[in-house]
Amino acid sequence: MLAMALSLPVQAKGLLRVLAWTGYADGDLVKRFEQRLGASVEVTIVSSDDQLREKLAAREGRGFDVFAANTAELQRYIDQGLVQPLSPVRIPNIARQQPQFRVPGAVSGIHRAGQLYAVPYAYSEMGLIYDRRQFPEGPPTSLEVLWDPRFRGRVLAFDDSTHNFSLAAQQLGIPPFRIGADDWGRMTQSLIALRRNVLSFYKLPEEATELFLRHRVAVMFATYGSQQLKQLRDAGADVGYALPREGALAWLDCWAIVRGSPQARLAEQWIDYMLEPGVSGELTRRHGLANTVDPAATAATGVTGGPLVWLEPVEDPARRSMLWRRIRAGDRPTSF
Asked: Which of 25, 89, 127, 289 is the most exposed place for a label (fewest CB within 10 A)?
């Protein structure tokens, strides 16, 4: 009876289940939200789009109330009916966002049939972070550096099927989001070669920072972009940042609410809270990511290079995931 009595206040106040990326729900900011709303927040951190899909696929997303996903992935969840339309008047801080993020139609992938399904929150390009001491001739200019045998064992890449196939496609001059039927063999062999050249495939930016420093990594494909650049520089690393001439993949993460969430109103308040200048500003100050509220907090890092290539839905995410699992497991090239 005592245990039941102790649990009642939490249930009465409400439990918000948040699915997010590292840096999006820092403990002190979560605690401030809990105190303000009289609610409890349970945060689950994901480290790849593959993991995000798996968690949202379980029980059709009913294990969570609100989550963050990039615009390309978000369209999948809208198609599957996993997210619910939003009412901007119930999230008043949308009015604080820069016009390029709040004007209807300005951001591809967050509207459907005239309804808003997600609110932009953070964005970055995926550049190349390099050790200046190991590149005395200047920054790397091409994705080819990730496959360069001169740096074997000193390369870091990200553990994600979608991005790695897009990366290999760029390296081979193939459209990164539309791999043709005749190109899968080439793509697979390219990623096997990448697997042989890397020190490791990381999941979280903190893991990448630790590996970079411990093993004197020469170059890294930075999926978290400017967030990883800040972490390494804060740790004292002499690193530079470059955008490859093939183009830098770029993402825009948005908050969305799971359809059927019992805490939809609390989820709206969470999104509104995330758009407060003091909260969005911490995303930039602490983690180096651009936010959608402050016009000065952009993803620009003062580097030059190739264009930004904003993520789009890919042709066959299930096939990419299946092949990537086999590549990571070390299957022989002749088995594909």
From this structure: 89
Q: How far is CA 79 from the centre of its chain?
A: 20
Residue 12 buriedness (CB in 10 A; 0-12 / 13-18 / 19+): exposed
Number of neighbours of residue 198 by Cβ within 10 angstroms: 21
Contacts with 162 (C-beta within 8 Å, 6 or more apart), sequence order:
49, 50, 314, 317, 320, 321
3-state secondary structure of 94: helix
Burial class from Cβ neighbours inside 10 Å (0-12, 13-18, 19+) for residue 145 reads buried
- Asked which of 6-20, 174-188, 241-255, 278-292 is least confident by mean pLDDT, the reply is 6-20
Specify the DSSP element, H or E, that contains 104: none
| DSSP calls for 180-236 | -TTTHHHHHHHHHHHHHH-SEEESSHHHHHHHHHHTT--EEE-TTTHHHHHHHHHTT
- pLDDT per position as a tens digit, 282-316: 999 999 999 999 987 765 455 667 888 999 999 99
- C-beta neighbour count of 34 within 10 angstroms: 15
pTM for the model: 0.88
> Hey, how many other C-beta atoms are within 10 angstroms of the C-beta on 84?
17
- List the alpha helices (DSSP H) in the chain: 2-13, 27-37, 49-57, 71-79, 99-102, 161-172, 184-197, 205-214, 226-234, 264-274, 277-287, 317-329
Mean pLDDT of the 156-181 span: 96
Question: Is 122 in contact with 283 (CB distance < 8 Å)?
Answer: yes
- Mean pLDDT computed over 212-234: 96
Distance CA 98, CA 180 (A): 37
| Overall average pLDDT of the 248-270 stretch | 97
CB 98 within 8 A of CB 293: yes
Instruction: Annotate 245-284 with DSSP letters as a single string.
Output: TT-EEEEEEEEEEBTT-TTHHHHHHHHHHHTSHHHHHHHH
Query: What does residue 73 show for φ and ψ, rounded to 5 degrees?
Result: -70, -35
- For residue 21, the cross-strand partners are 46
User: In sequence order, which residues have a C-beta less than 8 Å from that of residue 27 and are 6 or more positions away?
Assistant: none
